[in-house]
Amino acid sequence: MSHAASKAAVHLVGAGPGDPGLLTLRAAELLRAADVIVHDGLVDGRILALANPAARLISVAKSRSRHTVPQSGINALLVAEAQAGARVVRLKGGDPFIFGRGGEEVEALRAAGIAVEVVPGISAAIGCAAEAMLPLTHREAASAVSFVAGQCKGLSDQDWSGLAGVGRTLVIYMGVATADAIADKLIADGVSPAMPVAVLENGTRAGARALRTLLADLGGLMAREQVRSPAIIVVGDVVVRSDAEDRLPGLAARAEALA
Predict the structure, then answer these.
(1) At 39, which helix (H) or strand (E)?
(2) Which of 132, 169, 206, 256 could form a disulfide with 145 if both were Cys (CB 3.0 to 4.6 A apart)?
């Protein structure tokens, strides 16, 4: 192994939900020092503007069912850049270890003998909920919170039993395209159709919206409001304590009728 390879290292850095003010100090320090920044498509441009002006920026943007660079290609890119002696930052939206595939990248880098540092970021659930004044736990409403992916390995393959309902909050990532199926799944599992739901779109970014409806109307809300990714879905009684705007006419009456 060469001297350069023996000192190779990659930093997996969480960029948070969008607002550069939510970066950790360590993340900002690494961005300023990087030679190469391999970044997700959802990383806000204001964050990329904080990078070392001499750094090479490499986008590995992904969208639903279409990956510009497959994960194996990203892994190989990180290994190659590190072995060439570059100071590499892998910049990931939110937190690297919450639906960021950071674990896979750590495994690939370690298998190649490359040291890894993981710098956590504020996950979308935390950042977007805070902006919407939506407490994910509350002594009077929820003592547990769960995170799930709305399109991970097929919605029908996931077991969400007990994750949503009275006293619990469920946060769903990547669920915009499958909102109808998500609502049907939860209702079939016993969650009330009248359970409050919030959709937090573009959290901490320009054009952020926080919308509130009922579980039975989740798919309808997505269609009426033309919600687009990035967005998360929050299911639970904590939603009524948020600043999200009601987007279902007669919401209170409909909730009472469905309860």
Answers:
(1) strand 36-39
(2) 169
- Each residue's pLDDT tens digit, 189-222: 999 999 999 999 999 999 999 999 999 999 999 9
Q: Which of 62, 184, 185, 189 is catalytic?
A: 62
CA distance 102 to 87: 18
Active site residue 246: no
**β-strand partners of 147:** 171
Dihedral sign, CA of 192, 158, 239, 62?
Answer: negative
Pairing of the two strands 167-173 and 142-149? parallel
Which DSSP letter does residue 43 get?
S
Distance in angstroms (rounded) separating the CA atoms of residues 224 and 210: 14
Nearest Cα neighbor of 186 from 222, 168, 162, 167 is 162
pTM over 0.85: yes
What DSSP designation does 209 have? E
Closest to 186 (Cα-Cα) out of 206, 212, 160, 150: 160
Q: Which tokens belong to 30?
A: 């690494």
HSE-CB for 102 with a 13 A CA cutoff: 25
Q: Using an 8 Å Cβ cutoff, are 179 and 218 in contact?
A: yes
Residue 35 annotated as catalytic: no
Q: How far apart are CA 74 and CA 98, in angstroms?
A: 18
Q: How far, in Å, CA of 28 to CA of 47, rounded?
A: 9
